[in-house]
What we know:
By secondary structure, the chain is α/β, with parallel strands linked by helices. It has one domain: P-loop containing nucleotide triphosphate hydrolases (Rossmann fold, 3-Layer(aba) Sandwich). Helix content is about 40%, strand content about 20%. It contains 8 helices and 7 strands; from the N terminus they run αβαβαβαββααβαβα. The chain has helices at about 1-25, 40-50, 70-75, 95-100, 145-150, 150-155, 175-185, 200-210; strands at about 30-35, 60-65, 80-85, 110-115, 130-140, 160, 190. Strand 6 (about 160), helix 7 (about 175-185) and strand 7 form a beta-alpha-beta unit. Helix 1 packs parallel to helix 4 (about 95-100). It starts with a helix and ends with a helix.
Amino acid sequence: MKVKVATRILEANERIAFENRKLFNDAGVYVINLMSGPGAGKTSVLERTLSMSAGLRVGVIEGDIAGTDDAERIEKYGAPVVQINTGGACHLDANMIYEALSDLPLHDLDLLFIENVGNLVCPAEFRVGEDIKVMVLGITEGHDKPLKYPLMFQESSALILNKLDLAPYLDVDMEKIKRDALSLNPVLKIFEVSCKTGQGMQEWVAWLRNRTRAV
């Protein structure tokens, strides 16, 4: 019975995700589902990205179990932002995104980030209508995460290794992270960045510009 229920939930989500995808295509907006565990630095990545994205019209949907702190941080950069509080759910689903879209000027955007709930498991299982998934991994989380949480790495088009400035103080094997991630997803694009210093962010933003439909 549980398998049947789970299948129905995923099928219903896929149908709504397909409708979201049509809305995004009609508006000409490129959509990134940004995922990570708690504290990896998704919001910090977005703040740095927004500060370096002159000429790109960027919107953000913030997903959290509770609170509005992240949306308030993003709002300071002038980007249109909508907060979704899941009230306990460990991920955003397609219906939550659909309900939020009426509060965004989709046709005035080039790029939309959906910052998912901090969780290394279920956000990877639910499509929301995005073009691609991108994962943020703070190197403070250790080098065992790719093999412990393979689906996140398999589903993502890019991996942002964040908090590079802390590498001298950590016993973390960066090469193992990259090696294991690529063993799961050989076409994964990997960016090594520090949101604190800005290191590596230029390459990430340039990649973003090339992915969007903006000139």
